[in-house]
Amino acid sequence: MAAATDTSQQPIIRVRGLVNRFGEQVVHDGVDLDVMPGEIIGVVGGSGSGKSVLMRSILGLRRPDEGEIEVLGIDARSEDDEVRRRIERRTGVLFQDGALFSSLTVGENVQVPLKEYHRDLPDSLRYELALLKIKLAGLPADALDKLPSQLSGGMRKRAGVARALALDPPLLFLDEPTAGLDPIGAAAFDNLIRTLQQALGLTVFLITHDLDTLYAICDRIAVLADKKVIACAPIAEVEQLDHPWVQEYFHGPRARAAQTARDDNTRARDMKAAD
Amino acid sequence: MTAPAAPPPRIQTDDRDPARLRLAGQWTLEHATEVGKCLAQVPDGITSIDAGDVDRLDSLGVLELKRFAQRRKLTIEDFSFREDHRALVGAIHDVSDERPRGKREFGVYAALARLGFAVTDNWKETLALVGFLGEVLVKLLRLVRQPSRFRPTATVFHMEQVGLDAVPLVALLCFLVGAVVAFLGANVLRDFGATIFVVELVSIAFLREFGVLLTAIILAGRTASAFTAQIGAMVSREEVDAMRTLGLDPVDLLVIPRVLALLLMLPLLTFIADIFGLLGGLTVGAYSLDIPPQQYLARMQDTIELRHFWAGLVKAPLFALVISLIGCLEGLQVKGTAQSVGERTTSSVVQAISLVIILDAFAAIWFMEVGI
């Protein structure tokens, strides 16, 4: 287990000895992970290595079989609804396809958490806040009155981010944010996450398969393999790790393409940012 | 990391410069009400605002300050923020110019427009149904010329699903309705001492109308929805498109087996419905109207002509066609999302039931006019 880079700070997510089983099948066997405030951590691992299960455990959507999980200093395994709500209102989650409520417009979707947790907010202010979040997520203002089915996949994800940010959470979870996007859309989305992270001071927990995303925006990479987190370090260190899956992942044919494209990527982003 | 008792947002005018306002505390969503109150209390004549002492600031705080600035005709330059808050303020300032082009209309015009859309939608649905009927009929004819296109397995499978599996439900419901009709009739007829006419009432009602109508309505709820959901789910997962690219005709594969299955099974179910409806009447007659079964059956044989039975049964294939065509057509019209499957399923049941009842009413009038 790689030590956290900065020991002076309290981790915002702290996982110790996590064990998850589905019947006979053991998915996690002693997972340890620290996520520091203000970093973007990328979680990678093969299919079925339990990335989503880890996220669901941290979010309290699944009770782990053993182990400790603390989120924002609160025990995520708590049975007490009140305690769990304190986590829920301070975390934002983007599910794979946005998971927007399909019968509500994008604006109404963003207003759902605001209505639930802040009933006393005047309507006009709630509307303004929703509009602001939608525009922060990089959507045109017109998207406010559209239904999710009227948006493209990339726009739905942006709308999902807008809803995840509705309560200004310090902690954002993203499940495969760039899956199903074209390379241009994926790069723009990476850029959006980076910008939002800096502007809002977010901590981002990001599950991805996308090597470009890892190279472009992640501060540290956590590798899930052999039912554990086998490494948690900046990407340059993880690349060098002597583990068959890691070697295959970071040095396979697709990885080389991503590495060579990385410099172009950065340059293109800088140019875009300068516009 | 437990947050200390969060200081609420506060405002204070600067001692040395009365035109300068100092903000402190937490300007966040949790304190939205206090933020609003604070800003409402700001005295007139403030020209610059110092937000350097703010502990926490989030997008609500920035938004409220921007709205305040707009009301007081201040600009972003009149504010000074803490270093680590500038990124947030900048990000929000960058996106705050664009507004949506007008909200959803709820007025009279919008209502008129919705009415117009509903009319054209209905007209299109009608056209689509008639067109679909034509397509299925043409392809049925082709089936006669090219019997190899026929899918016997699928047809038999659907016959089991829509026919055999529906027998208990149809039988039970018809038995109960038959019994209820007998009770109702007996209550009225007893006053005239004509309880025996319950036999005619139940028999004619069931053979001509209720048997086929109840069966059709049950199948419209049970089968039209199933057809729409099955085909709709396939459409939304692009299975139907895949079929087309493989050179398979979805009408041959999906629609015709279902139409044929229902065409064969609805008359058979109607027969069962008739039998159980009559049995319902017979049971009530025997147990509470003092009409022994022998007398009941003899009376039926004397008074009920076969034409009543045919007048009911002849409608069964027509209803079968309506139910299966609507069910399949709505399924094929599903667009992409899961919500669309749900909407289409509802729509197919509503259309099938309404059309069955409307056609039945027309048929009843027509049979009366021609005296069958």
For the sheet with most strands of chain A, the description reads:
6 strands, mixed
What's the average pLDDT of chain B? 88
Strand content of chain B: 5-15%
Biggest interface pair, residues each? Answer: A-B, 33 and 32 residues
Number of helices of chain A: 10
Helix proportion range of chain B: 55-70%
Q: Which regions of chain B have little confidence, pLDDT < 50, spanning 5+ residues?
A: none
Strand tally of chain A? 10
Average pLDDT of chain A, rounded to a whole number, is: 82
The shape of chain B is elongated
Q: Biggest sheet of chain A: strands side by side, in what order?
A: 6-7-8-3-9-10
What's the order of the H and E elements of chain B? EEHEHEHHHHHHHHHHH
Query: What does the oligomeric state look like here?
Result: heterodimer
Q: Provide the number of structural domains of chain B.
A: 2
Total strands of chain B: the figure is 4
List keywords for this structure.
heterodimer; A: 275 residues; 6-stranded mixed β-sheet; 4-stranded antiparallel β-sheet; 10 helices; 10 strands; B: 372 residues; alpha/beta; Transcription Regulator spoIIAA; 2 domains; 4-stranded mixed β-sheet; elongated
